Amino acid sequence: MAATFNKPRDSRGFCAVKPEYALTLATTPTTPSEQIGPKREDVLESQTDVQNSIDLEKDSRGDDTNPPTIENSTKRKRGMNKARHMNKVQETIRLCPHVSRSDGTGNPCPFQETCKFSHDLQEYLDSKPPDIGDTCAVYQATGFCKSGWKCRWLKSHRGIAMDKDPKTEINTVSKDFMKDLRTKQVSLPLSKSFLQSLNDKMNVDETGGNEDNKTGNVDTVIKPGEKRKIDWSGAKLLAPLTTVGNIPFRRLCRDFGAEVTVSEMGVSMPLIQGNMNEWALPRAHASEREPSRSGRQGLFGVQISAPRPWQAAKATEILSSYCDSIDFIDLNCGCPIDLIYRIGAGSALLDAPGRLIKLLRGMTVVSGTTPITAKLRMGTKDNHPTASKLVARLVRDVQLSAITLHGRSRQQRYSRAADWNYISECASIVKNIKQEIENDLLEKGIEEEVGQRQRTAFIGNGDCYSYEDWYYAIDHCGYLATSQTNDRWIFEEIESRQHLDKTSSERLEMMKKFCNYGLEYWGSDEYGLNTTRRFICEAQSFLHRYVPVGILEILPPRLQDRVSRWCPRNEMEQLLASTNSADWVKISEMFLGPTPDGFTFIPKHKANASNDGQAEG
């Protein structure tokens, strides 16, 4: 992003570190035992030790003039660990959920002899590992612990009568409903009518007949102008994030000031088929729709992907009809993942604008009063952006609540900087077209149409790492969605308009809060505990790259800048900056206890960890 910086950037792509924290060691240790570098005082007092360490390394490598051989060279890690497998740690004796309530109020198991779980509570308790601690964070926060006897902090509520389940999750559907979806027992009249009208129109186009009134019966159900209006101006949006954008993560960002959150992307076909894992994605915590710390009402949207109009229409009608806590539904037309692209969804829709418009029209027709938004990329190929033409068509032909543009191409993925000049150009196009439409309606004397139309907002996305980036985008685009994997407190920085140098203790407290939210969502039993452990490690695979602003010489920071060798200010800061995935597991043990046998963690991205990228418990 083009922004004003105090000093020029390092052209080599490194973030500049203040001289007193910079290291000149020839090696970059990756674990606390090796250290990121010696203590800062040692660096300042003794340059001799540094030189000796360099000389020793030269001796071990031999003459520097000799090129490295295959044996002693290290290949740079690239790409993803696509074949990674997460072992699910299970208890030796699996207690039946119906008898797991620790206050004795559990319902009798309706399956009895045919139940595959154990009903012998004493046998289960005898085999259960010792409690991790004295206080169950879930029970302390809500007065209820859904894990019951299976809770790893059982002593804090053993035998105590619990409050009623607070039901803090929204957009949950029953197993019976998912079964009805699988057996095609759910009626979708709006989708059926729209798809019939679409087929009729195709037949009219083929025969050359009259197409009048072929789609009128559908379009009059809910007009775009009758949908709920969303005021996007000045809203602090958290963009959806795959893998790490779960409920605990979004709750944490809400605590720091996020006002609009979006679910992880759900695939339309598994949603239509009632897939249990896919239906976990539209869920949200009730706090995501409560007023934020600024007083603004929180908004929650569900993002989906679809390759065909019938899939998009059916998934949208199901979500809008059976989930009553969705403020908008977003179609992801920018997902670069090969699996999504190959089936014709995601960024593949950028090269099929006609099909994309049919998808969005169908979603608009069947969504009732729920607004529809779309997420785009600049195009599928570098140096060939197509979004400017596409957004112009979308504003004219489809009345969306908002269009989000990520300033990168599919080919670019997340490399290099986002092109905010292009985003600004598209924002101007949207503004001009909206004005043209309004003027045209006024000239025709149909002023009431102006107020009834959805005034499509245009939102920029990409490379927002500081409050300066955010305000720059607001000035040049009007709205901004930010996705933060390194700095959850950017929303706090936006409010205060200053860079915040969070201490290692504050960052550790943030991780503790994430763990508590994770236990509340996934459960405080063995399964929930290790699911939380996995996602805190996933988060740390990005967080470890964060360099505190008090150490940086040039602000604001950029995610693309590689981290220079720097000296931490204390041991905890050193641990949080470790690139060794085994250290991430150690951090999780501070809050979740020792890892069980068989637990392994492999980072999603190969470059995100050292030591072959695998940590075991």
Automatic annotation (TrEMBL):
One of its GO terms (cellular component) is nuclear periphery. GO terms for biological process: mRNA processing. Its EC number is 1.3.1.89. InterPro entries: Aldolase_TIM (IPR013785), DUS-like_FMN-bd (IPR035587), tRNA_hU_synthase_CS (IPR018517), Znf_CCCH (IPR000571). Its cofactor is FMN. Keywords: Flavoprotein, FMN, Metal-binding, mRNA processing, NAD, NADP, Oxidoreductase, tRNA processing, Zinc, Zinc-finger. Residues 55-64 have a biased composition (Basic and acidic residues). It comes from the Eukaryota. It is an enzyme of class 1 (oxidoreductase). Catalyzes the synthesis of dihydrouridine, a modified base found in the D-loop of most tRNAs. Specifically modifies U47 in cytoplasmic tRNAs. Belongs to the dus family. Dus3 subfamily. This is tRNA-dihydrouridine(47) synthase [NAD(P)(+)].
